[in-house]
Design a protein that fits this description.
It is a single chain. The protein has 12 helices and 7 strands. By secondary structure, the protein is of the alpha/beta class. It has 2 domains: 164 residues, no CATH class; 127 residues, Response regulator (Rossmann fold). It has a 5-stranded parallel beta sheet, sandwiched between helices. It has a two-stranded antiparallel ribbon with strand order 1-2. Helix 5 runs antiparallel to helix 6. The radius of gyration is 22 Å and the shape is globular.
Length: 298
């Protein structure tokens, strides 16, 4: 059987095409399997396997094409292949990588050789990481396969039984919002070993950010331009999944009025700057544990 995925050009030669281990796929957060399943409810596991195989198998060629593009040795086919990769990356939920490709193509069109080269090097590194993760999830023996072949099963149904179990093992997600790059860098350094930390320097981008990620806890600066920390709370709470998500304020203005005001608006804690690493870790761990216990009990 030959299957062609319209608009992407993925060709699978037969039903014996490569399979992938579910546990390995979910374990590799960069593969975004849950996002793909949610965005494409009719996508089968077999079609997803096809995309994984296409991406891993093409990574080396695309890296060569990118190098050709830098040296201006590429032709129309090279350019077309790169555009096709953008479509594949978007279909698989790798928006960051697709965005880098679009930036490269734009820089190339404008004749910005240095910027084109910078994008290309970044993309080559990203593709190498992605293909390595995909290869790691590939089944190596027929005995690795489950009794029920998931090939024709919708991807969302295939991963559903394990989703809850896997989520427990994933690092909690923290979003830190602060207009100070120094504070954000410090927070990331202190927490990244135990948490998946996202950093946001512009508070006006919070709502857009929350359409892309789902934090388990927020760290908000109080005094920020345009939209301050207090004004961010209603934005957070209007998302149904964040009605009760813990919010901790980081601020140098630790007055009673500020503390009570933050609590009234829905914050759960208040840490005065300069932040003490031990206090920050302890407070976050406490609130994450409390929220996890509530979710497990519900």
């Amino acid at each position: 059987m030959i299957t062609e995925m319209k608009g992407i050009g993925i060709i699978m030669e037969n039903r014996t095409a490569e399979r992938y281990d579910l546990a390995s796929l979910i374990k590799q957060n960069d593969l975004n399997i849950h996002s793909v399943a949610s965005a494409s409810p009719y996508l089968t596991a077999g079609e997803y396997f096809g995309m994984l195989s296409e991406l891993a198998g093409s990574a080396s060629k695309f890296s060569d094409d990118l190098l050709k593009l830098i040296s201006r040795d590429g032709d129309r086919n090279t350019y077309k292949d790169l555009t096709g990769m953008v479509a594949l990356l978007k279909r698989m939920g790798y928006e960051k990588h697709a965005s880098n490709f679009e930036g490269l193509l734009d820089a190339y069109d404008r004749g910005h050789s240095r910027l084109t080269s910078s994008y290309a090097r970044r993309i080559i590194d990203d593709l190498d990481v992605l293909s390595t993760r995909i290869t790691a999830a590939r089944m190596t023996r027929a005995s690795d396969m489950a009794d029920a072949d998931p090939y024709e099963i919708p991807l969302s149904e295939w991963i559903a039984p394990q989703s809850k179990k896997v989520d427990v093992n994933q690092k909690p997600v923290i979003l830190a919002v602060d207009d100070s790059p120094v504070i954000l860098k410090s927070v990331s350094s202190l927490l990244s070993d135990d948490y998946k930390v996202y950093l946001l320097a512009k508070s006006v981008m919070l709502e857009k950010t929350l359409s892309q990620i789902t934090p388990d806890l927020f760290l908000l600066d109080y005094n920020m331009p345009i939209i301050n920390g207090f004004e961010l709370i209603p934005i957070i709470r209007k998302f149904s999944e964040h009605k009760d998500t813990p919010i901790i304020f980081l601020t140098s203005e630790g007055t009673i009025d500020n503390i009570s005001g933050a609590v009234m608006l829905g914050a759960c804690d208040f840490i005065v700057k300069p932040v003490q690493p031990k206090i920050l870790r302890e407070r976050i761990a406490r609130h994450i544990a409390k929220e996890t216990a509530i979710l497990n009990a519900s």
